[in-house]
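Page 42, continued from yesterday. The earlier attempt failed because a stray header line got pasted into the input along with the sequence. Redoing it now with the clean sequence only.
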Amino acid sequence: MSQPQEPHRPFFPFGNPFRMLSPKGSQLSPRLLSLLNTFEEAFAARLQKLNPKDKDDVLSLTWMKLAMESLCETHTAIKTLITELELPVTEWDAKWIDVYLDITVKLLDICIAFSSEISRLSQGHLFLQCALHKLECNTSEKLMRACSSLDSWRQHIGSKNPRLGNCKSILESLVDSLTLPKVKNSAKGKVLMRAMYGVKVQTVFVCSVFASAFSVDSENLLDLDVPNTISWAQAYSDLQTTVNGEIRDVFSRGKFTFLKELDEVDAAVNKLYPMIQDGMRPTEMEAFRSSFSDLGGRAEKLSQVLDVLAKEVDGFFKIVLSGRDALLRNLRVSDTVADPFPGNSGEQVRG
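This time it went through. Structure tokens are written below.
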């Protein structure tokens, strides 16, 4: 487990989010305070909704789909907040811009790694389909080929994806290695920096869970300490304790695979495999049909949830990319930038 040695720095370079209500700083107007409270209340609700009622659902593709969906909602919400704040056009320091662009590159890189792994897992479905097709014909030759396809599926799923190798260093750099340029203090800036802190926390949390689940390595989990002065701190602490704790517990059991839907397919394979390895006896036909049907259903469920998860990861990629593109467009038009995240710009990305 990666334990931070010093307080985590904000994900985006807006300064310290915990000093925003300091008497020495700008006071928040009722309108700004209302905007902040609305954002944080909705954010806390998303964290609470993400906390699984059943711990067995933690390491599941279904839960991961909900987690990525929630993260996209949070990134969309921060865009809406920026619009509502009506931030004035301000000059961005070159170092500020470099930090932002560096962060977005890292997020795009980790999205590409996740998409690569989802695609790899989806490719394994071909081996299952091949095995099921051969099992429809009860001949010794077909049974041997079915066994070979199931062996190939296990080897494919159990292999390592080299694209996941950089996830840990990317996550740690997002949390610990940011250079924070100073920016002019303002009431609106304080609201934004506090909201951005929440975006940062959820982004690192979700990405660390994905990296851990896909790489089968609990070392990719990151535990973030959120000050209890933040209104959503308890909701986040409960979520992190439940999810990270269960992941580490599951990893300690030493299983073939750690994702629930993959585990279910593997269990069905293990049940069917002995029946076909040495040929089926007439008395085993009913059990074979049941196991055959079970494997087919679980394989199809796995394929479908992987497709849905792939779309969610792609949606997050587009949200990050669109914000980056908006900043670069503004830089080309003017020496000043008003808002790097205009609108719900996930639709602005051209295929």
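Notes: Residues 17-334 form one domain.
Reminder to self: strip header lines before submitting.
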